[in-house]
Design brief:
The structure is a homodimer. By secondary structure, chain A is α+β, with helices and mostly antiparallel strands. In chain A, α2 crosses α8 and α5 packs parallel to α8. The interface between A and B is large, with 122 and 120 residues.
C-alpha cells in the first residue's frame, strides 16, 4: 500500500491504512463497498427476512403511526347503505327528465326520511321524499334533487332541474366492498386510516411491536444531560437522532446509554440490549476504534454475524449490518457523525425494518423537483444532500457529514443515484421528503 | 327566491332554501363566502390572535412532534471546540504545501490526541499529531491530513498530500453560535431537532399544551365500537379523523362523544367540553339541522360569537369559525362528510391553531409536480383533490366529498387556487403533502 520503508505504527492507525472503511479485502483483491440496494438485498437474504416479529393489539387511536402486523380487510361494505350526499328530495331520475326553472316537474310528496333510520316507505316513479344529507335512500328512488332546485307544499314537490341516475348519492358498497384490503401488513398506519377503520367497525388493530435498543459509543461522548462537558468531549446526540426518526416512522425504542471505546464495555452493554431487544442499533463513536469494536461485536453474534461492512453511500459509508438468524437479532452499526447517522437511519435502518416485517416502505416520499441551485455529485455512491423546499422546487443546503445542524430547516434529502453526477439549477432532482 | 306560489314547508328544508350554506344574507344583499385566506385572517383579527396558550415542560424525547412555546436559542456554540472530521494527522497546512506521493513532506511526530480530552501539547509548524475523527485539535494545527495520505514511524510523519487551511476539520462554533435561534415559537419539533437540542445540552423543552375537545354530531351517528349498527345509521369516523390529524401535527385532543341533532343535547355536550378545553371542534352531522345547531352554539358563546359561516372551498364549504375572546375559547364547526372533514381540518383548523399560538405553519409541505392525468377545476373556490405520488409526479384520485376512503393511498392533495381552472396531464400542479 505504498508506505515505502516506513513501518506502520502499532496503533489504530495501522488497520485503517490496510483496510479503509468501505473497502473489503477479499481473497487477495480489493472489493468496493456495494450499493444500498445490493446491501439491503444481501442483508435480507443473509438474515432470512421476513421474520415473525412480536406484535401487540392496540386501540385504533394508538395504532396511528405504527405498522400493521397483518393485512386488514373490510368486515363490512361502505357505505353500509345507499345514502344521499345532499339535502334534497329522493326521486326516480326518469321523472325529472326535462325539468327546468321554466318547466318544472311536479311529484307527489311521499314523506320524510329521518336521519339514522330506514325509511318506512317506497318511492313510486311519480313520487318524491324529503331526504337529509346522509339519509338512507328509500326503495324505488335512484337520485336526489338538491333542495336549491326544488320546493314543496300541499303534498306536491316542484322539481326545477333534472337529475341523472345516481346523482347526489353514494351507493351501498360504492367505496369499499366487504373483504377489500384496506391496509397491508407492514404499512405504517397513517392519518387517514383511523377514521376509515372506525367507520367499518374496526376498533382494534394488531401492530408490529419490535423491541429496538439503541447504544451510543465513544470515549468522547457524555450523556446529553451532563451538567458540564470536559474539554474535548461532546454530548450524546446520536441516540436521540435515531430514536426520533424511529418514533416518527412507527417504532418505539429504548436507549441503553453510552459505551466507551473498549471491547468489554461495549460487549456487556450490547448483551444487555440483546437480552431484551430484537434489533440493536449501535451508533458508532466517530473513531476507528469504536467502529472496529462494533464490527467485532456484530461478527460475534453468530450466524451469519457481520454481513455488510460499509455501504457505497455518502454520507453513511461506515454502516454495518449483521445479526443472528437463530436468535432473531438484527444488529446495525451506524456512523457517529450526526448527518451520517441521520442518513443511515433513514435509508438503511428503516428499509431493513420494512424487510424484517415483510412489508411497508412507507417512510418518506420521493418526488422529482427542479433545483434552485447546482448540486455537486459524482458517479459511484448514492449521495444524499439535505435540502429545503422553496417556491415549489428544492434548494440543496451546504453541509458536512459532521454537521448536526444540517437537518434543521431541511425538508428532506436530494438523492443522487449512483449514475448521477452534478446537476445544474433548473434541472430536476429526485427528492426524498420527511 | 323563485319558489312561485308554493309555501315553503315548515321543516328543516325551509331555512336551506332561504340561506344556503356558504352564502350569507346580509343587509339585503347576498354575499358569497370568502376565500380560505380571508376567513383565516378575519378569524385571527376577530379573535385577537395570538393568545397566550397553556404550556408545559417536557423532556426532549417527548417534545417530538409538539409545538415549541418559545424561541429556543443555543446556550453554547457547536461544535464546542475545533474537531477533526477524519482519522489522520493534525498539522499546520503551510507545512504540507506541495507535498505529494513522489515528494512527501516529513514532519516531527508531536504526540497523539486522545478522544474526549484536550491535547496537552501544541503543534509547531514542523510538527504533526495523530488525531482520531472527533478529536480536539491541538493548538497551532489548522488542518488534518487523512490517514490514507500519511504514515509515521520513528518519530516522523510522512505526508503525501497537501491540505488547505481548515481542511478535514469543523471549527468551534462553525455550525451554531451561542444564542443562535434553533427553533421558533410555534414550530412543530421535528425529527432533526432532538439530536441537536441534546448536543447543546438542552434536555427539556416548553411546548404548547392546548386542550382541544372534539364532538361528533348527528342523529345517524353511532359510536365506532358499536356492536351492531341500525339500518340508516353510520359509525362515528369524524372524531377519529380529526384526532388523528391533530396528533400527527403535534396536538393532543379529547373526544366528548356524539351529540344528537337537538339543541339542548349539543349545548350540554359543548359546555362540558368548553369547561375543560381551549378549543372545541364540532364535526357537524351531515344534515342541515346539525349544522344550524352548531352555528347557534358558536353564536351563543359571546363576543365575537360566530365569525365565519361557510368558506369558499371545495370540499369543506360548511366550515364555521368563532369563539369568545374573553373566555379564550376557539370554536370550530366542521362539515360531516369525511373527505370534507379531512380537508377542513388540514387547511382551516391547523392554520387557525398556528395563528392562535402565534407561530408555526409547519403542517405539510407544498411542492409543484407534473400531473399524471387531467384535473377538473373551476374559477372561484380553493379546490382540494386527493392525490397520489407516482413516478415523481402526481396523480389525482377520484373522490366524492362523502368518500371516507378517498384518503387511503393518497399522499396529499392537489390544491387548485381560486384563479385556477382545469389542468391537463403534464401541466404542473400545486401539491400539499402529508
Amino acid at each position: 500500500r505504498g508506505s515505502g520503508g516506513l513501518v506502520p505504527r502499532r496503533a489504530w492507525a495501522a488497520p485503517t491504512v490496510l483496510r479503509p472503511i468501505g473497502v473489503l479485502a477479499m481473497s487477495g483483491f480489493i472489493q468496493e463497498a456495494r450499493s444500498i440496494d445490493d446491501c439491503l438485498r444481501l442483508a435480507a437474504e443473509g438474515l432470512s427476512f421476513p421474520w415473525n416479529v412480536r406484535r401487540r393489539t392496540v386501540g385504533v387511536s394508538d395504532a396511528l403511526l405504527r405498522r400493521s402486523s397483518a393485512d386488514i380487510a373490510a368486515p363490512e361494505p361502505y357505505p353500509p347503505f345507499t345514502r344521499s350526499l345532499r339535502d334534497g328530495y329522493a326521486v326516480c331520475h326518469a321523472a325529472t327528465t326535462g325539468a327546468s326553472e321554466s318547466s318544472p316537474a311536479f311529484l307527489k310528496f311521499a314523506g320524510e326520511v329521518v336521519m339514522g333510520a330506514a325509511p318506512p316507505f317506497c318511492i313510486a316513479p311519480d313520487e318524491a321524499a324529503l331526504i337529509p344529507t346522509g339519509g338512507m335512500m328509500p326503495e324505488g328512488a335512484d337520485a336526489v334533487v338538491m333542495t336549491e332546485n326544488a320546493a314543496s307544499s300541499d303534498g306536491w314537490v316542484e322539481v326545477r332541474a333534472s337529475v341523472q341516475r345516481g346523482e347526489n348519492l353514494a351507493l351501498e358498497s360504492e367505496e369499499i366492498k366487504r373483504s377489500d384490503v384496506l391496509i397491508r401488513r407492514g404499512d405504517v398506519i397513517g392519518c387517514s386510516a383511523p377514521g376509515l377503520l372506525c367507520a367499518l367497525g374496526i376498533s382494534e388493530v394488531e401492530v408490529m411491536d419490535m423491541r429496538i435498543g439503541v447504544i451510543s459509543t465513544g470515549d468522547e461522548v457524555v450523556p446529553a444531560d451532563a451538567r458540564s462537558v470536559p474539554a474535548g468531549a461532546i454530548r450524546d446526540a446520536d441516540t436521540y437522532i435515531v430514536q426520533s426518526i424511529l418514533k416518527k416512522y412507527g417504532e418505539a425504542s429504548k436507549s441503553y446509554g453510552i459505551a466507551p471505546d473498549d471491547w468489554p464495555a461495549l460487549e456487556a452493554r450490547a448483551h444487555e440490549a440483546m437480552a431484551e431487544c430484537d434489533v440493536v442499533i449501535i451508533s458508532g463513536g466517530s473513531s476507528v476504534g469504536a467502529r472496529d469494536n462494533t464490527a467485532r461485536l456484530i461478527e460475534s453474534v453468530g450466524d451469519p454475524g457481520l454481513l455488510i461492512r460499509g455501504i457505497n453511500m455518502t454520507p453513511g459509508k461506515p454502516t454495518l449490518i449483521g445479526g443472528s438468524v437463530k436468535d432473531g437479532k438484527l444488529m446495525i452499526g451506524l456512523p457517529g457523525h450526526p448527518l451520517s447517522c441521520v442518513v443511515s437511519t433513514v435509508f438503511v435502518v428503516l428499509p431493513l425494518l420494512d424487510a424484517m416485517c415483510g412489508g411497508g416502505g412507507g417512510a418518506g416520499k420521493y418526488v422529482k423537483l427542479p433545483l434552485a441551485s447546482d448540486v455537486q455529485g459524482r458517479t459511484g455512491p448514492d449521495e444524499f444532500i439535505p435540502a429545503r423546499l422553496e417556491d415549489g422546487g428544492v434548494r440543496p443546503l451546504a453541509a458536512k457529514s459532521g454537521y448536526i445542524s444540517a437537518m434543521m430547516g431541511a425538508d428532506g434529502f436530494i438523492r443522487l443515484r449512483p449514475d448521477t453526477e452534478t446537476l445544474r439549477a433548473g434541472e430536476t432532482a429526485e427528492v426524498w421528503l420527511w
